[in-house]
Write a structure and sequence with these properties.
Layout lengths: L1 H22 L9 H10 L2 H6 L5 H15 L8 H19 L5 H8 L2 H8 L3
Helix pairs in contact: 4-5, 5-6
GO molecular function, one term: iron ion binding
Organism: Novipirellula galeiformis
Protein name: Cytochrome C
Amino acid sequence: MVYSMLLGASICLPIVGANVAIGEDAPEEKPSIKAVMKACFKGPLVKKVVAGKASDDEKKELHAMLVAMSETKPPRGSDESWQKLNKALRDASEKMLDGDAAAANLLNKAANCKACHSEHKPK
């Protein structure tokens, strides 16, 4: 009888454990540089934030996407340049979250496409 119970438990426990693992939330994947470009720069997000028409959630989304982009490896060009350009974007978006009045101008200046694309955009 004890042997049967142990055998049953040894079969059921891995199955229960597998179900619990499947039910857990998977870590969220960071957006690619291409996704950030599409949503933030080609899409309306940066323009909306700079114009002061973005909601707090949109500002948070922009900041999160810019932080995620800064944590990626540049497709080409130096890491130093990549970090410098992304730091300007991150800092401006963070100031925007903090309600800094000058942040819109800083974000508009940091979102200069040519500054980043000339060195880092893949050909």
